[in-house]
UniProtKB/TrEMBL annotation:
This is HORMA domain-containing protein. Transmembrane segments: none annotated. Belongs to the MAD2 family. GO terms for cellular component: cytoplasm; kinetochore; nucleoplasm. It is found in: Nucleus.
Amino acid sequence: MAEQRGAHDISLKLQGSIDIALEYLRLAINSILFHRNVYPSEDFYLEKRFGLDLLLTINADVERYINRVLKQVKLWLEKGEISHVVLVIVAQEGGAVLERWSFDTHLVELGSEVPLKSEQQMDSEMAAVIKPILSCDGFLPTIEEPTVFNILAYAREDEEADPVPPPPGWEDTHAYGIEEGKSEEVRLKTLDTKLHKVGIAVSYLDS
């Protein structure tokens, strides 16, 4: 009975941690699309969260795409099959990769005795990790040309397991790397739920 209860506690904590990581990704992706001018300001609405003014998309197509991506990311996180989620910003004309926002996701520790952070602690943590994204215009080059974005997912490498095949609607693609020798990187604060860590780094074309 105790063993079953312990397994149930672990499952609940793991799901709670995954939900926090997914909410962070959702808010981060929306914030990047707004602050990097991928879509016009009228495509966003203001929502106050964690003491911050967040801009979230009202573009139905973009919202569906993000939700579809995060639904699949959730499945991969539950199975421990994903290592990175990458948002790339690409020039509409010519296809040059201007920025790569890489979210490194990994399970830190698993056990019924591992306490998740309190709701108040997580609210403070979310504010701390999202705030640098909201001020990214201060340390990234201005993007003045029309752009599009894409979201990539990287499977966790396991030499003993077969490669994870792309699910329906996904396909293998190239890395969308920034031109060699012209890239700079900035690492931002890591989200830590106690069970998962989501690190973030942005690479940009330094022209």
